[in-house]
Amino acid sequence: MSADHDDGADRVWFEPPPRSVRLPMAPPTPAPATITLEIDGREVQVADGSSLLDACASIGVETPTLCFLKTLTPVNACRVCVVELEGSRTLVPSCARKAEAGMKVHTDSPRVRLSRKLVLELLGSSVDLSQAPDVARWMARYDAHPERFGADAATVAQPVKDDNDLYVRDYARCILCYKCVEACGTDAQNTFAIAVAGRGFDARVATEADVPLPASACVYCGNCIGVCPTNALVFKSEHVMRGKGTWAPERQTTTDTICSYCGVGCTLTLHAQDGRIVKVTSPLDASVTEGNLCIKGRFGFDFVDDEPAGDG
Amino acid sequence: MDLRIPHSEPSPDERAAVDALLGAPASGWDGGDRDVALDGRVARRGLRAIEARRDLLLPAIEAVQARVGWVSKAALDYIARRLTVPPAEVWGVASFYHLIDLEPAPPVVAHVCDDIACRNAGAEDVCAALGAEGAVADGATWKRSPCLGLCELAPAALLVRAGATPTTEVVAPATAAAIATARAAVDGPADASAGARRGDARLDEVRRSVPQAGDASLQLLARVGVVDPGSLDDYRRHGGYRGLTRAIELGGAGVIAELTAGRLVGRGGAAFPTGRKWQAVAGQTERTRYVVCNADESEPGTFKDRILMEWDPFAVIEGMTIAGLTAGAEHGYVYVRGEYPVAAARLQAAIDAARAAGLLGADVAGTGARFDVEIRRGAGAYICGEETSLFNSLEGFRGEPRSKPPYPVAVGLFGKPTVVNNVETLANVPVLLTAGGAAFAAQGSGTSTGPKLYCVSGHVARPGLYEAPFGVTVRDLLALAGGTSRGRPVRAVLLGGAAGSFVGADALDVPLTLEGLRAIGATLGSGVVMVFDDGADLPGVLRRIAQFFRDESCGQCVPCRVGTVRQDEALHRLAARPPAAAVADDRALLAELGQAMRDASICGLGQTASAAIESALALGLGDPVADAPTTGGAR
Ligand SMILES: Cc1cc2nc3c(=O)[nH]c(=O)nc-3n(C[C@H](O)[C@H](O)[C@H](O)COP(=O)(O)O)c2cc1C
Ligand code: SF4
Ligand code: SF4
Ligand code: SF4
Ligand code: FES
Ligand code: FES
C-alpha cells in the first residue's frame, strides 16, 4: 500500500495512520494460585477456583456425571457425582463444590459407592436410560440393579411429544437434569420457552400450561437437544429413523465445517449416514458456539439433499 | 428481555385481582388498553419499577387464587406480561404449590387434614363421610391436606372461600356435619378478627390450644390469651417492647453479647446459635441486608408458631425489629404459611399498629434507624420452610433449595446477607434481653437454654402447646397434658415431627434437651411430642409419613425425588404382608434408600425423609405384621 508500483501516473496513495500501539485489551489476569488437597490419599494440586470434579479429573479419577456440563451453570441435581469430604456430614456434589486447600476427599468409599449406586438405580427404575451413553457402564461399575424396586415401581413413562417438524421430546427418557432449561434460559439462548413445572415426582420440563412447542416461545435453536444427556430431546430425523429401525450410528461419519448461513461463523458438525445428513451438532469447545447454534445451522440442512430443480 | 407472551385476555375478576396488587397497567405493552399513538413507536430501555418486581409473582398468583378460586392460563399470561417474567417460568412457579389450582375449581374448598395427628383422631372417618375427594357439590369441594398446624384440635379442616373479600374458617374438631355448618360462616362477611374475643371468652378459647394460658409463671406464652392480640397498648402494658428498649440501650454488639451469653439457639429445627448468626450478618461488608422470619411452620405436628402469631403477634414483630437493628437490616419479611390466614391477619394488624406508633418505619423508636416488615404468604409447600427454598419462593422462583455454601448470612434473600429465624426464636429475643443473658442461660441445661414450647398431640387427654424449660421429660409433658386419652399405655412417641424420630415407651424419662436426645439418636426438631398409645395404627402412620415426603419433595434432586417414592412403595409392599424373604429384601432396601437420601440429597427434607420410618422400624414399631392395632378399628 504505497506508491512503489507507480506506473508513472500522477497518483497519490492514501497512507493509513499507523495502528495504535495500545490495542484495547483486558489487563492480563494473574494466573490463579494453586491449592493443594488430598483425593483418595493422593496429594493433588489444582488452580484455585477449580471444582472437586476438575481435581478428580486432573489425577485421572473418572467421576460419573449426568447434570453437569462444562458450558452450563452447575445445578447439582442428579447427585451421581457425590464424593465424601472429611468433616462434612453429608456427601458433596463434586461438580459444584469448589476445591479448597487441605480438603480430604474420598471418591470410592462405601458411602460414595452406595449413593452413586442408588442414584443410578433410582433413575434406572423410573426413566428409560437406554439411549444414555455411559450409564450402562456406570451401572456395572456400581453394581446397580434398578429392577430390584419391583415391576410396579412408578416411572415417568409417557407418550412422545411429537408436535413440530424439527425435534421431538420423549420425556419418558428425561432425568430432569435441568440442562435444557438452562440452555434455553440464561446459559445460552435466553428464550425461556421451557421451565421445570410441578413438584416432586411430578416435576417435569414443560412449556407454559404444557402447550405444544409451536404455541410456545421456542425458536427451534435446538440448543436443548445439544445438551440433553439421555436423548429425551432428539432430532425429528433421528426419531423417524429410529422408528423405522434405520438409525445406525456405526455407519455415521462426522464432518466439521462452518455454517454458511451468516457471518457469525459457527462450527457445525455434520452427522451423515449413507451419504445423507441426519443431524447437526456443534462442538462444546468451539469458541464461537460453545455447542450452541440457531435454527438455520441446526436444522437447515434438508436442501443439501434436494435434487437440483430444472436448470440446476 | 425479549419475551413472547401470548395475548390472552384475563377475566375481569382476574385482572382486578392482579391490578389491586400491581396497580393498573401503564400501556398496551403490559396488558392495558393499546393506544396506537402512545404505544405504537416506543423503544424502552430497562424495566419500569413494577416490572422488576419478580418477587411479586407469587403474591399476584395468590391474589387471583383468592379472588377466583383457581388460576387460568390467561391470568398467568397477564401476570407474566405485568411482571416481565417468561410464561413458562410463571407456570413453573404456579404449578409448584398445593394451594394454587390450575384447573377450574368451585369457590369453596374444604382442606381436610389427614396427617398423622388428625389420623389418630379419626380423620379417615371424616374423609369417608365427605364422599369422593374433589367432587363438586353446591359450589364447594374438599381435598385432603397435609398437617394444617391445628393438631391440638385434631381432626382439623380449613374452609376457604374465594371472592373479592375471601373468607376462611377453621373447623376443629372436624366432622362432615361441622364442615357443612361452617359453610355458612365462610359465606358470610369476612371478619379476620372474629377469633379474637375479649376477656374471659378469649382466655377460654385460647385454653383449648394452650391449657396453661393465664399462668403467671409463663414467659413465652405469658401474654397468650391474656392480652388483646390487636392492641399495642395492651402488649406494652404486659411487658411488650421492653426488649427493644433494652436492645437500644445495649447497641448491636451488646445485643449479640447478651444472645451469646444466653446461648439462645434456633427453634426452627437446626438449633443454630442465634447470636452467631446475627453477628455473621452484622459483620458483612455488603450494606443491604434482610431479616426473614420463617413462619412457614409445616412440619407435621407443629403448631407453636401459629399460636404465637395469632395471640402475641407484637412479640414476633418486636423480635424482628431487634434483629433488624442489630444486623443493620432495613427490611424484614415474615413468610407465613398459606394455611394460616388468622396469623397473617393479626401480624398485619400488629405491623400497621407498630408502624403508626413509630416502632417500625423510617425512624424506629427514635433511633434514626430504618426498619420495616412485610408479610408474604406461602401457598402450600412444606419445602418452603427450608431457608434457601423460602428465599427462592419469596423472590418469585420455584421453592427449590439452593446448595450451601454459600450460607444465608453471606448470600441470602435477593443475594444479600440475611438473618433468617424461626418465629419462636424471635419471640425468645425480647424475653432474653429483658431477663438478661445470664438469667436466660440459667434455665434449661447445657447448650439447651431458656424456655421451650412443646407441641403435644396424639393420644393425650389435653393436647396443646405447653411451655416448659429444656430438660423436662416426655413423662412430665404427659402429666401436664393429663396423661393418655384412652387409658391405654404409651407405645411410641414421635419427637420432632415427620422429620424427627420415634422413641419407645422406654424413653419417657429422657430429658428433652439437644444433647439428651442426641444421645439416644433422636431430635427435638420443632418441638413436636406426638403420643401414640398401644391402639395406634403405627404401620398406617409410617405410610402417611412416607406419603408426606413423597408429596412434599421439591423434585430437584434424584435421591429425594425418586427415593421418597420408592420408600413409600416399599412400605406399601410391607403392608401387604409378603413372605419373610420379601420382607427382608424390602427392609434392606429401605435401609439403603435411607442412607443414600441422608448422604446425597441436597437439603434437609431428603436428608431426614427416612429418619422417622427408620427409627420406628429399628424399634420394632410399625411392623405391619407384629404391630397391627390391638383393637379392631382403633386408630
Ligand atoms: C424441609 C425443611 C423445612 C423446614 N421448615 C421450617 C419451618 O417451617 N420453620 C422454621 O422456622 N424452620 C424450618 N426449617 C429450618 C430452616 O431451614 C432454618 O434452619 C430455620 O428457619 C432457622 O431459624 P432458627 O435458627 O431460628 O431455627 C426447615 C428446614 C427444612 C430442611
Ligand atoms: S429449541 Fe431452543 S428455544 Fe426451543 S426449547 Fe430448545 S432451547 Fe428453547
Ligand atoms: S429433557 Fe434432557 S436435558 Fe432436559 S431435563 Fe430432561 S434429560 Fe435433562
Ligand atoms: S432433598 Fe428433596 S426437597 Fe431437598 S432439594 Fe432434594 S428433592 Fe428438593
Ligand atoms: S453431576 Fe454433579 S450433581 Fe449431577
Ligand atoms: S392439623 Fe392434622 S396433623 Fe396437624
Overview of this structure, please?
The complex is a heterodimer of chains A (312) and B (635). In chain A, 19% of the residues lie in helices and 17% in strands. Chain A is of the alpha+beta class. Chain A is built from 8 helices and 12 strands. Chain A has 2 domains: 33-154, Ubiquitin-like (UB roll); 167-304, N-terminal domain of TfIIb (Single Sheet), CATH 2.20.25.90. In chain A, β1 (34-39) and β2 form a beta hairpin. By secondary structure, chain B is α/β, with parallel strands linked by helices. Chain B has 5 domains: 12-94, no CATH class; 108-185; 232-442, NADH-ubiquinone oxidoreductase 51kDa subunit (Rossmann fold); 445-533, Ubiquitin-like (UB roll), CATH 3.10.20; 538-618, NADH-ubiquinone oxidoreductase 51kDa subunit, iron-sulphur binding domain (de novo design (two linked rop proteins)), CATH 1.20.1440. Chain B has a 5-stranded mixed sheet, sandwiched between helices. The model of chain B is unreliable at 630-635 (pLDDT under 50). Chain B is globular and about 80 Å long. Chains A and B meet through α2 and β7 of A and α4, α5, α21, α22 and α23 of B.
